[in-house]
Amino acid sequence: MRIRCPYCGERDNGEFTYLGDAGGARPDGMGTDAAAMHDYVYLRDNRAGVHRELWYHGAGCRSWLVVTRDTRTHEISDVTSAREAGLARRNSGTTSGEAA
Amino acid sequence: MHYSVFSVLAQALRGQRDWKPQWRDAAPKPEYDVVIVGGGGHGLATAYYLAKEHGITNVAVVEKNHVGSGNVGRNTTIVRSNYLLPGNIPFYEHSMKLWEGLEQDINYNAMVSQRGVLNLFHSDAQRDSYARRGNAMRMAGIDAELLDREGVRGMVPFIDFDNARFPVKGGLLQRRGGTVRHDAVAWGYARAASDRGVDIIQNCAVTGIRRENGRVTGVETSRGFIKAKKVALSVAGSSSLLAAMVDMRLPIESHVLQAFVSEGIKPLIDCVMTFGAGHFYVSQSDKGGLVFGGDIDGYNSYAQRGNLATIEDVMEGGMALWPGLGRLRLLRHWGGIMDMSMDGSPIIDRTDIGGLYLNAGWCYGGFKATPAAGFCFAHTIARDEAHPHSAAYRLDRFATGHVIDEKGMGAQPNLH
Amino acid sequence: MSTLTLKRAETQAPLARSDNPAQPFRVAGGLVDRTRPLSFRFDGRALTGFPGDTLASALLANGVRLVGRSFKYHRPRGILSAGSEEPNAIVELRTGARREPNTRATVAELYDGLEASSQNRWPSLAFDALGVNALAAPIFAAGFYYKTFMWPAAFWEKLYEPMIRRAAGLGRAANAPDPDHYDRMFAHCDVLVIGGGPAGLSAALAAGRMGARVILVDEDSRPGGRLLAERREIDGRPAADWAAQALAELASMPEVRILPRTTLFGVYDHGSYGAVERVSDHLAVPPAHTPRQRLWRIAAKRAVLAAGAIERPHVFGGNDRPGVMLAGAVRTYLNRFGVLPGKRIAVLTSSDDGWRTAADVLAAGGTVAAVIDTRPSVPAELRRPVEAAGGRVLTGSFVSGTKGHLALSAIEVSDASGRFDQIACDCLAMANGWNPIVHLDSHLSRRPVWREDIHAFVPGTLPSGMTAAGSAAGDFALADCLSGGARAGQEAAATCGFDGAAAPAPQTDPESVSHTPLWRAPRTKGKAFADFQNDVAVSDIELAHREGFRAVELLKRYTTLGMATDQGKTSNLAGLSIMAELTGQPIPSVGTTVFRPPYTPIAIGAFAGHHRGKEFRATRHVPSHAWAEENGCVFVETGLWLRPAYFPRKGEADWMESVNREVDTVRAKVGVCDVTTLGKVDIQGKDALAFIERVTANPFGTLAIGKARYAILLREDGFVLDDGTVARMSDSHYVMTCSTANAARVMQHLEYARQWLWPELDVQIVSISEQWAQYAVAGPRARDTLKGVIDPGFDISNEAFPFLACADVTVGGGIPARLFRISFSGELAYEIAVPAAYGDAAWRAIMAAGTPYGITAYGSEALSVMRIEKGHAAGAEINGQTTARDIGLGGMLAKKKDYVGRLMKERAALTDPQRPILVGFKPVDASQRLRAGSHFLGVGETPSLAADQGYLTSVAYSPSLKSWIGIGLIRGGTERHGERVRAYDPVRGGDVEVEICSPVFVDPKEEKLRV
């Protein structure tokens, strides 16, 4: 598998570590209830198909990336910086699941 | 036909002409008491024990492909009950005991071979953590031995004791652990369940689960609607996809785990051995191939194949531990799709939907659990309550915090 | 219509029988070098061959036809093919530590001194005692073992299984470490061409001429494929000459890399390919500094699959007898190696292709006993030369049986009317069409598709970036291979942005590929094999059908068809076609097996590369490593680190004596320990504090500049991730430390929090673990020692620099350093950090400065003893299963901030008062040893799961207390001080009565810290 890091170019997946679903944003703040946090920590859509997910380029630039990949074929359609995606999410006030 | 040396000899004289299909290739009836989704080891075992232990025989096992086409035929065939945590110990030991009597029970030789499972350790800290596990097993009456370096040398003299980056200091041995011919487990349970009246319906994909008033009423399939009082999901690898049909999200991710087999060679290793300083474990099949594996590739996948980085990692572990492997050849590698749960332990439970039951989240340990998973899941389905041995495998344990995390890795399934 | 030419290419000398008595089957011609005979041994027998030979061609040249025994019935087996698909001729190659079992003689290049032995036979190849298995064949049907060996139950492991295991397997592995080494290469290219036959060479030429970066891999020692094996002409010249010229042109192109002896074994995601290059396998021993094999990981923008095709055997009784060969292989041996595999050769064919074999044999001066064509009629121009040479031609006929003791002596030919005839021959060449090699394109889970017009599976949807050409695409005619290859190469280069048109395709002599396969003989005598190596006969497939194993995967698993070392290259379609006939379905409806990598078996050593022995993983040395080595240190592997464990001195009897001395010295005087392995993270920015507050579980808002504080990090699920310290160096500059084991994981976690969870925070973080050497200086004389190290002008008195102070200082006359007054040992202690490049010098300076005070270096063992004496949690307690409260840190948790893990740690099970909690343990009898991993059990209680109260996490011999001590987790521990329980350790035979106590064994009031 090869992932095109926006900073380093296309690299072998051995340079990256995987975290998982880049779906729901962390429910921040003292007001968050346990059920929302439980869903965030434990539940997954686990789609067979296009999947937005987080990878860490630990053996490269140390960037977290949001990779859009089809879990049936491993085809990658998009790679963006997680920080950029995260900022966009913050600015639009949506959850990370909605901000692409 | 009863299988025995006599029937085999008799058929040898008759040109093998009288053997019948080992299980009936059934067509779906309109209605069943229980429809089990998934004709793998767990689903078939569940059907068998529903019939045998609970007298429930109006049962269908629906399988989208053919019997045993999923993980039961893709794993590395290891059975063991060397668990650490109280939630796991009684369950896996029950499974081991069922393995020990399986062949006589189902009249099918699954080649249960208790050749020993040896987990190597390479540091004092690892020794103490294995001792903790071994002692937990012994407290529960399960066999466990802590071998020192010389004890390990006696069993596997060919591994690297002198030039290792992480020297072998000893090992935790469960002699009752071993291997089982994986396909035979699926076929044996299929035959035994079929003989007790269970319908095994192959090439029948479930496309939907029908509900009315919070209860399931049956399954939509590629061969039509099948009405059912109870529906039991036993589809490790695809659990989330089936759950999504009833709008459930599970604490599960699907990951690919690769497995490997070498060319057949004369007997070389007589136990199952795991490397404690890398991702590598190995045993030898009755046919002579070394069967080995390592870690999951580590990303969500529904494709039954992995990538080179993991393959190299496994082989590196193999060569580091056993440098005599170098000239043996890898014959084939393949991948299976694992239900990776958030604490590394399975789920056998009812769901919030009446009549819908779930057996899922087996990570890469489902094969060894096959008999007990079938036994306990059948109990849950028949009695609507957990069997004591699987009582910890609740779906709500993540909300209550009663996680069963053998490795202490937390809610990141690719670390389990 | 056939226009097959029987005319020999005029540029080639006419072939003649060799009069070489040593190699009675060697004839003139071919590509072997006859000037330099090579000697080799097979089963001890001395034989000769030539450079350019394979072991198989040399054996055939010497008239050796019996080469091995089959897996199950131990039937005599010979050489079927001339390539990597070989199922039968597998041998043990080389001896001693280099012994390679299951080596295909057909691809093993001959070298001088080669030694090979037959395998899976006893006592000898000609007389194999287990040949009796063949007599029991009626019993040993597919899957018979699932039905028996069940009684008595205990006999399986004791008797049946050992017996089966001894009989199973094939060759013997070497019983010593592999003496050779392996290398790994990474390569990138525009166009990867897989296979160097006519299509592959054409593709590489087309792409190369356009300037693309091309890699051409070919599994053979000499690229050319069938061009080397056929008597064909291209542009009026022998095909082999055309191949040589194409290779020469490719070699002259700077952007083209040719990799012969290289098998492209696997296709992986996104244009990743795995290949193995057999660098030295054609030599007796790899030359110095040369690997045996090299694993290539190739990233290619485009790939042209030109892997060729594999010929199909016929299925009839006795089709496995040595002497029965593939017709194309007979041509290969003849045309490429100058070996005529028989004195009287018969051909069984269902295609025009088979007639080519007859023509080549005749042209070489050999004898064609007969050509049996399964088709009702054949064009006269095919028959005529054979009949003219005295050979029989039988059409509408098939072979129904074979004769011969250890090798073929005659075949039995039948026709539809039931007549049969016996024909004497010592070689039968089978032509039954070819199967495109669809393995590689199916590695990415793509299924091949059936083409009825050519009776074969061809690639279906190809993986993105891949095109197929030549016979791999089902184009069997040479002209189509050349033009198709060129087209594919041109297209591939063009999509990579290179310009150029394909050159006109070269001209070939005319040919016919007309073919009507016969899937199995309609009537047959004896076992008719579909899978040779695994002894899967038609009767086994029939039995599988009878018992319901009809889906192709079930058929394969039940009969083991296609699961031998050849992975069914010559057998899969035979199995499918027979099952199709039995079920009355078309072949593609039965299914296609999924081909898995590797294409051919690959040495495990090649995958591992250099990662074995001490080089399995990198070794990290601490900055004081050189000093430690000079001073006789004993090291211990800790992750990738090699950490000093203890420093034995002369006269010390064992490790414990050394460790005790180190502990005593620290507690009484001063010691220094290299703690560089800790994770160190630099955190800076306006929002540094806000960031730290969110990733730590205890409060930091009140942390003053110049102060450090213990830090707890949780995972989001509420369990402890790690612990460490956070020091505030300036207003917006913090340094965090974490444990050695978790350094990488914590850094990844912090980056995750910074980049993904809270990207809006103005904070930068960087790992400085490798940039700073860090040493703990501990003991009552620590301050005195450091005064001799730190530059004058820095006041480190207790008043100016109290417990938990931190500051930037300098050492050695202006070298920047950081000083932290923190303690793991419980003594007056500091940690001093210097830039890593000064690590060695700083260590030596500390040792020198401490010498007047009796300083000792101490290692991880003494460090561990002292932290257990102080009851500090470490890796054994922070094991991912414990909460902060479990390890006695519950009181430190912040209540007024949101942080990672805050909510989930409040779940019922994590706050259950019955959870085991960390306390101390002392043996009631002080002379008794404790062991970590022991479980706690009530005194007098019977061991059971329910009786389990917890376990000892860490133990040490405390020289301060003159007793073993331990810390551990036990239910309700805090309220049970003074109570006695048993530390039960059955796996080591231990059962020690212990008393529950405070986990702080030394200086519980923490007076020593603050002086």
TrEMBL record, chain A:
Pfam families: SoxD. Residues 81-100 are annotated as: Disordered. InterPro entries: SoxD, SoxD_sf. Residues 91-100 have a biased composition (Polar residues). This is Sarcosine oxidase subunit delta.
Automatic annotation (TrEMBL), chain B:
It is found in: Cytoplasm. Keywords: Cytoplasm, Nucleotide-binding, Oxidoreductase. Residues 33-378 form the FAD dependent oxidoreductase domain. Pfam families: DAO (PF01266). InterPro entries: FAD-dep_OxRdtase, FAD/NAD-bd_sf, SoxB. It comes from the Bacteria. Its main location: cytoplasm. Transmembrane segments: none annotated. NCBIfam families: soxB. This is Sarcosine oxidase subunit beta. It comes from Methylobacterium jeotgali. The lineage of its organism: Bacteria, Pseudomonadati, Pseudomonadota, Alphaproteobacteria, Hyphomicrobiales. The gene is soxB.
UniProtKB/TrEMBL annotation, chain C:
Residues 625-897 form the GCVT N-terminal domain. InterPro entries: 2Fe-2S-bd_N, Ala_DH/PNT_CS2, FAD/NAD-bd_sf, GcvT/YgfZ/DmdA, GcvT/YgfZ_C, GcvT_C, GCVT_N, Sarcosine_oxidase_asu. Residues 1-22 are annotated as: Disordered. Residues 525-609 form the SoxA A3 domain. It comes from Methylobacterium jeotgali. NCBIfam families: soxA (TIGR01372). Pfam families: FAD_oxidored, Fer2_4, GCV_T, GCV_T_C, SO_alpha_A3. The lineage of its organism: Bacteria, Pseudomonadati, Pseudomonadota, Alphaproteobacteria, Hyphomicrobiales. Keywords: Oxidoreductase. Residues 918-1003 form the Aminomethyltransferase C-terminal domain. The keyword Oxidoreductase applies. Gene3D superfamilies: 2Fe-2S iron-sulphur cluster binding domain, sarcosine oxidase, alpha subunit, N-terminal domain, FAD/NAD(P)-binding domain, Probable tRNA modification gtpase trme, domain 1. This is Sarcosine oxidase subunit alpha.
